[in-house]
Design brief:
two-stranded parallel ribbon, elongated, 10 helices, 2 strands, mainly alpha
Length: about 220
């Protein structure tokens, strides 16, 4: 009996439940997306949605709001406004990036006599330099570079997850507490089958799985 051939994984689940949706939610690290995209191609799977975890994006938005506004009240107002827009429209991130473009052009052109953009007049500070500027424009670049992963409105309407908390919690309870104990060392060829068995056990599928394997094995022996 070869444990590594147990019927696990999204492809098997989707064969059994074709109505389910495949959604990828993680942070914006390029190496993570490269790994996931390679895996999807290898498994001949297509994700219904690819999103950056909303918590990570909220942190970026909060950093921008605190950096560019003139006070706590203005920062909170802007942050809540942008949150609502992201919840309601897939195009919200495009509008947010355009607003930030307008503000950056204003600050870069200070001294040319151009007025502050009307959108920013009641919110923005009059100068933006040093650490505040670094925080604002680095987070702006992050949003701009990851726009395709920040379309949350449709996902919310379809009942799809937009946060990776469930996955991260599962990683801790399924993997970390069992496979990162003191003194443990694992190779992939040993870890993979043990992890599959643990997942089956926690999902209460271990006994049915082995009954299926034994039934198949006994059937093959009877036929021989």
């Amino acid at each position: 009996m070869r444990v590594r051939h147990l019927p696990l994984g999204p492809r098997h689940v989707l064969q059994q439940r074709p109505e389910l949706r495949l959604v990828v939610v993680q942070d914006g690290a390029p190496e993570l997306w490269n790994l996931v995209d390679d895996w999807l191609r290898r498994e001949h799977l297509v994700a219904d949605a690819k999103l950056i975890d909303r918590f990570h994006v909220n942190e970026r938005l909060a950093g921008i709001c605190e950096a560019v506004t003139h006070g706590i009240g203005a920062a909170r107002e802007l942050y809540e406004r942008w949150q609502t827009q992201l919840d309601r429209s897939d195009g919200a991130v495009d509008r947010i990036c355009r607003r930030l473009d307008d503000l950056s052009y204003y600050f870069l052109g200070q001294g040319d006599g151009d007025p502050m953009p009307r959108y920013w007049e009641p919110l923005a500070r009059y100068t933006l330099q040093g650490e505040r500027a670094s925080i604002a424009w680095s987070n702006h670049a992050y949003l701009d570079n990851h726009r395709k992963y920040l379309r949350y409105a449709t996902a919310r309407r379809q009942g799809l997850p937009i946060g990776s908390g469930v996955t991260e919690g599962a990683c801790k309870s399924v993997i970390t507490t069992r496979f990162k104990r003191s003194g443990q060392r694992w190779f992939e060829h040993g870890l993979s089958p043990c992890l599959q068995l643990r997942a089956l056990h926690l999902n209460e599928r271990l006994r049915p799985c082995f009954e299926l394997l034994l039934s198949s094995r006994n059937g093959a022996l009877a036929a021989a």
